[in-house]
Amino acid sequence: MEKPDVNVPEGPAPEDLVIEDVTVGDGAQAQAGDTVEVHYVGVDFETGEEFDSSWDRKQSIEFPLDRLIDGWKEGIPGMRAGGRRRLICPPEKAYGPAGGGHPLSGRTLVFVIDLIAVAE
């Protein structure tokens, strides 16, 4: 797979988590609490500016789902390895409300995530 272009939808930011499969994989299915290996790109919904990308570091990342932002905890389970999914995470599913101490607090974030592998 190659680094995806992240398309930010027109109009106001959604108030709830949006989960969209771009490509459905045929590998192992991620479950809540699993450790996953992913590639991802993160973009600010309002500005369309990329703020993070594992692709740019040329290295996938592996981590337990229970250590991630709520949008990922809720948006990755059910995904299959080999798949690509877009998540639109409102602030309460990302880094919390504005003034929360994280540079992305108060922001709606768009992620495109490629699930490489699931480790149980």
From TrEMBL:
GO terms for molecular function: peptidyl-prolyl cis-trans isomerase activity. It catalyses: [protein]-peptidylproline (omega=180) = [protein]-peptidylproline (omega=0). Gene3D superfamilies: 3.10.50.40. It comes from the Bacteria. Residues 33-119 form the PPIase FKBP-type domain. Keywords: Isomerase, Rotamase. Its EC number is 5.2.1.8. PROSITE patterns: FKBP_PPIASE (PS50059). It holds the Pfam family FKBP_C. Belongs to the FKBP-type PPIase family. PANTHER family: 39 KDA FK506-BINDING NUCLEAR PROTEIN, FKBP-TYPE PEPTIDYL-PROLYL CIS-TRANS ISOMERASE FKPA. This is Peptidyl-prolyl cis-trans isomerase. It comes from Corynebacterium frankenforstense DSM 45800.
